[in-house]
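Hello, quick one for you while I still have it in my head. No rush at all, and the record is pasted right below.
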Amino acid sequence: MPTKPSRTWSTGHHVAARALDAALEATIVASFSRVGAVLRRATQGWPPVASMEGRTILVTGASSGIGRASALALSRAGADLWVTGRDEGRLEELAEQIRAGGTTVHTAALDVTDAERVDDLARRISEDAAGLSGIIHSAGALTHEFATNAQGVETTVATHVLAPFRLTLRLAPLLRAATLSTIVTVASGGMYTERFDLSRLEMGPGDYDGVKAYARAKRAQVLLAHEWSRRWGRDGVRSYVMHPGWTDTPGLATSLPTFHRLGPLLRRVDEGADTAVWLASGAAGETGTTSGIWLDRRARGEYYLPWTRPRRSAQADGDELWRWCERRSGLDLPPTQ
């Protein structure tokens, strides 16, 4: 009969796993690549995502990439879903796959920068008797050409900052009423290259750089996530940011083809989505952690480069961004929000 590992061995293994994790994090390249995902899973003994039966989660950008992988994993965990995406055909294909597994799914084909369609989606979800207990903000794109949405907002900012702000605000009453609710924002490791500076967030046609615009918007997403936690945490809302590492998605292949040539070093899409799903399940909250930025099921630092650190408090930056989002969204908000 095999013997159980000794307590000393278990403790030693835990210490070694933590040391390996820290070493991977220090290299950045190994941490963000598939190497990090594989080694961490193997040494940390990640358990399966807990059952999510009885919970309803909204996933944006679910027609491909991280969003699609997240929706499938959530459905396997038993969650009912609302899924959005711009490609109606791929969205319906995803819905058929989810329904075949026995869970409920509602679809909404839309561009998240369309304010009227976002408001209509929020109304539909609010009228659903199942309520809502979580959102994964996965919709996004890196574009190299300057463009604006119907309201005249630069597309990168409209997609990654104003759209999540509007949708989350519209659904806040449901999230605050739920027994357990989580907001998970899928950011990008690229945000580590930029400091938050509201005056530089929305780029114009003369100085537009798609990579910089994307990184700045992703940095702003971190502040928004902090604000949701700060403003609604007392109501039980948990708000996290995660970045998926370097993940092989259709968007990466299209927007950064040179980077896509890393090939075997890129994570599989299910590996990139894992932490988003794990956070949505509420697992991080079991340790008392209800916010922060995460990679591979662990909270990570928000800054790697000294010149990207904020010049003032996160709350001051967060308040400024919140007021700016109110103005640029055209939302007339009550003072309590």
